[in-house]
Amino acid sequence: MTKKSLAHDIEKARSELRSDPQHVLEQCSELLKRCEVDSPHFVDVLLISSRASIHIGNNQDARTKASQALEIAKRAAYRRLEGLGYNELGVLALIDVNYDEALEMHSRALDLLSKFGSELDQARVLLNVGNVCQFTNRFSESLDYYERALEKLNITDDVPLRAIVRSNMATLYHNYLYDFEEALTIAKENLETFKQLEDNVGIGKTLHNIGLHYRSLDKIHESIDAFQQSLTYTKQFGEVADVASDYGMLILSYLEIGDLESADELLNEVSELEKAGKFDGHSHLPLMRATAKRARLAGDWAPTLRLVNETLPQYMYSVPFILEIYNEELEYYESIEDWKNVSVVLRKRCEHLKMLYSRSLKSKMYRMNRTLERSRKKGEAEAERQRNAELGALVRHLEEVVAENERYIALLAHELKNPLSTIRTVTSMLGTDETITISERMELERDIHAISTRMFEMVNKTLRVAASENMTDGSLTDARTTFSYSLHTLSALAAGKNIRIVSSQSEQPLWVQASDASLAVVFDNLISNAIKYSPLGETIECHLGLESTLEKGAMVVLRVADHGPGISDTDRLRLFSPFSKLSSTPTGGEDSTGIGLYLVKRMVDRMNGRIWYENTSSEGGATFLVELQLAKPPYGSESTQ
Fold it and tell me: How far apart (Å, rounded) are the C-alpha atoms in residues 252 and 289?
């Protein structure tokens, strides 16, 4: 059996805990045999088995397994499982009404799980601490822990556990805030959730709570229906305390509507269950209340008085319960005409109501402050997020500006390299070739001056580009002029490698929406690349003309073809990427920075044009084509047909 299969079976058992705890216990017995002793899986299964034992009411077995799991986890330094072990013992301490121990266990669990556990692990512990606070009348703290648990669950999106937390909050609304309508609304929403999840334990508990809320709203018949449905579920899936509570509240409700027959029938069932050792009715408050009320109706007030004197102080938090007990006590003293005690009970009742309403008001103020505080924190967090987003955007923009400037510097250096190479070649000829005539020397000097002037213009233009990030300044240029000038300035470079440039261009003006500098970047780079990668003594073809299609209309097309090594399949993928050098090497030992084609593509894109590559022939060579939309000629110029 693989570890993956074992882990799957463990999770399956965990998912069935609430729906069928008895079956889960049987599963865990088999899973423990498959686990390596003292392994994390072994500890995990012990904890699942412990919780299943709690669900069926075998708390002693649950404590034994939880203690064993905790001991192994501590010894093996399984920190998360150690935290879960403490949490399980905290749940058992709460069941045993040992609140101090429960808080101690949960505190240890929270310390460990905040470091080694998940958000879901922490939410479970926060829920349990909230339960302890509720049972110890620390209601504001209880609400705080429940809300913290919900915040964790909003991250994990655990629907079942969120429903459980909200269910416990509904109990607080009922018992402490005296808001029965809100409690009923939450309970009904949770009931639908548990039905969708097929969580029978959750369905049973929620139906019981709905019965309590209806009862507090004086809708006794609706409460009886809810308690009857709840008892159906809790008998099969619930804990012993749940079953006892359903019996007790159902009997009380029947007594209130005068249905003594139904109440007595249920009391007989309880008696049979007590004889069978299923539970002790004297340890469950709802059953104690039901028994006392039935005795009172028969004229025996002793159980009621015992309940009032011995049990009432433990349940001072429950508004509905307290009012019922005071009413019963008043009824008793009025029946024996003990007006002195009637007055005492009335004073106690008024003082207690004042305390309860004061507590309710404080709790509502607490909730309001919590809501305002959460809104304030949410607003501050959103403002901080926006500030960080704006700051991040500014930083990214500055980084892009810096990177762009660095690219422009590199591009400028690249663009200056070709004319500088031409100047170096010409000056070398002037210094070494004694056959050059005076007229030829003057012509070459004029070329040097023209090239240096163009370099100066290029520097200025590139600096403007770095500031505006746009070299297409909206001007109209006759591409033929730029094309001719590029051919002229690069002819010396070609002559240095004995390369012949065969060129042709349209006789008609070829107006394009671009600046001369932008076009020069495109033409110079493509032609100089053809020279750079052509073998010595070869020929390159350069053509600038007009082509028309029905789809695109009139287009200015540049073709630059060489007979060099061509472009490999690998190089094609990164042909226009910045600073990517191709596998082919220049034939004359020239430098290659990997910027030229990137710059050409960038300029063509900004001119809304298109550039692509084709093979010159089956034997090799590269042909680059640029396609630009023919623009309308400027007013007063020669038009094109």
Answer: 8
Bridge partners, residue 546, by sequence: 556
pTM, to two decimals: 0.49
- Helix, coil or strand: residue 252: helix
How big is the CA angle at 598 (ends 594 and 604), to the nearest 5 degrees? 155
Average pLDDT along the chain, 641 residues, taken 10 residues at a time? 78 85 91 92 94 89 94 94 95 91 95 93 94 83 88 83 86 76 89 88 90 90 95 86 89 91 91 79 73 83 72 54 70 81 82 70 68 79 84 82 71 72 82 82 83 70 50 75 92 90 93 89 91 92 92 92 87 76 77 73 89 83 93 67 38
Q: Please, are residues 529 and 561 in contact by the beta-carbon 8 Å criterion?
A: no
Per DSSP, the chain holds a count of helices (H) and strands (E) of: 23, 7
* CA-based max dimension of the chain: 145
**Closest among 256, 266, 267 to 327, alpha carbons compared:** 256
Per-residue model confidence (pLDDT) at position 597: 84
* Residue 540: predicted pLDDT: 94
* pLDDT (0 to 100) of residue 641: 38
- Torsion angle of C-alpha atoms 463, 468, 472, 476, degrees rounded to 10: -90
- CA 398, 404, 405, 411: dihedral to nearest 10 degrees? 170
Tell me the β-bridge partners of 613: 624
Instruction: Give the amino acid at 314.
Output: Q
Q: What is the DSSP letter of 239?
A: -
Residue 31, Cβ density class (10 Å: 0-12 exposed, 13-18 middle, ≥19 buried) = buried
Helix (H), strand (E) at residue 96? none
- Return the structure tokens found at 54: 């709690």
Q: What residues contact 598, with CB distance under 8 A and at least 6 apart? A: 576, 577, 578, 579, 580
- Backbone torsions φ then ψ of 452, nearest 5 degrees: -65, -35
Return the DSSP state at 511: E
d(CA 249, CA 278): 18
Q: What kind and span of H or E run contains 131?
A: helix 119-135
End-to-end CA distance of the chain: 82
Which residues have C-beta within 8 Å of that of residue 322, sequence separation ≥ 6? 312, 315, 316, 352, 356
For 372-377, the CB contacts below 8 A with 24+ separation are none
φ and ψ of 548, to 5 deg: -130, 145
* Whole-number Å distance between alpha carbons of 506 and 199: 82
d(CA 28, CA 18): 14
What phi and psi values does residue 290 have, to the nearest 5 degrees? Answer: -65, -45
160, 123 contact by CB (below 8 A): no
Amino acid symbol at 136: T
Q: Which amino acid is at 181?
A: E
Q: CB–CB of 16/24 below 8 Å?
A: yes
User: Which SS3 state, helix, strand or coil, does residue 546 take?
Assistant: strand
Say whether 592 sits in a helix, a strand or coil: coil
